[in-house]
Amino acid sequence: MADMSETSTELGDEASKTAGAPTAPSGAVPAARASAKKGRTAKTAGRKAPAKKTAQRAAARGPAPKYPRHSLEKALRIPRALIEQNAGKPATRDEAVRFAGGTGLNGPWSVEISSGQKYGFLASDSGTVSLTDRARRAISPQSETDRQSALREAILDAPDFSSVYNYFRGEALPDEPYYANALRDRFKIPADKVPEFQQLFQESLSYADLLDQSGPQVRVLGRRSHGRKDK
To answer: Which of 75, 127, 141, 210 could pair with 115 as two cysteines, CB 3.0-4.6 Å apart?
Structure first.
């Protein structure tokens, strides 16, 4: 009987302790779960920060230049590779880059494809690039005039290059700083891109036999456009 009484007393004490123990309020999040959630939120914020900084840097640089970022000669590298390595047939963008010696499509190669399109050497459709008739005439001319006419057409189609060529053709390019000022103010070339533009423009005109550099001043060849008016 004494044993049973002691056992009853012990059970009563345990029940009393349990009843008195504090309980978590309804709806409370366990500390471990809250800590894990906080960690995930911090990681997400960390991933968003670089993207935001990239967007801010792009906005600070301003809009991308419209003109081709490669000279005429360099913009023919991929079209020439398609002829020599792929029998002139269309290819995916990645394949075209590999034919030209690249290891895969990336930023610089994407810009080079864009330059080829701006000159009218490449056409793009559903992820593939193909040669245009202009590119074929420039690379594999079938007459004495094919190459030169194809290159001149490319200059006349290229954004910004065409406007500057049409304005100055038949004349000498201005001395500095007037040349740079005209590109910036009249043709809206971003000030930080003017040196690059000048180099690519003059290299391309020279390759197309549209530049005379034999005299003291560089002259743009071709008949002056009619009705030119100062803006």
So the answer is: 75
